[in-house]
Design a protein that fits this description.
The protein has one helix at 2-31; strands at residues 37-52, 57-61, 63-77, 80-90, 93-97, 105-127, 131-155, 158-165, 168-169, 186-187, 189-201, 204-213, 227-240. By secondary structure, it is mainly beta.
Length: 241
Amino acid sequence: MIMKHLLLIAALFAGTVADAQENEGHYERAMKDFPPRIGIKAGFNSANLTIDNAGTINDRRAIPAWHAGLVADFPLLPVLSIQPALLLNSKGAKYTVGDAGSANYSEVRIRPLYLELPVNAVVKIPLPNKVKLFVGAGPYIAYGLGGKIKTEGKLLGISFSDDDRIEYGNDDPANGSNGSRYKGSLKRFDAGINLLAGIEIGHLILNVGYGYGLMNIRPGSDNDDSKYQNRVGSVSVGIML
């Protein structure tokens, strides 16, 4: 009786293994036409900042910016891919402090440049003639490399203009709470969420996207409620190899 039960268990196990191998074979055959790919992308940004509790900020506007870099596509299923990228991403905003008609006001244009790593999960909808629609979302992290900040206006009725490099503070979390207490134009690290949608036509990719910054990048904001956060709409063109 025991031997009969053991033979039954062995047969069930063998059947399970055979089914798993058959399913794995189906998966490999299904994915054969969807190899990993790498490519390049570039495009236009409409960059802005949300600014909260940071003094008298008036007339905040988006500015034109850009992005460019490498993108990869790793299919998990015929309709699902993971797409990491490594981009140079220009962001920023334009805003005024005070009343432009007064003797004391300033207009600020800030253009930080980041090295950004987004990782998006992308769902693809196949259409005829190697055309696919896609939507995706995922997180990003970014590291400030440089950029420019230009300030012009009036002080006691006397015009002034200043064009300088962005100075980043050392807000690396590894440095502890004291690491973010510094003087600078912006905090160096940013992170947020990406949304994207577009069309893939063979090797060509066209998409629109939106980057929603979650980090407060305003320097010296540890002990108050002031806040800067990046908001970036984008249009991209890419070529996958």
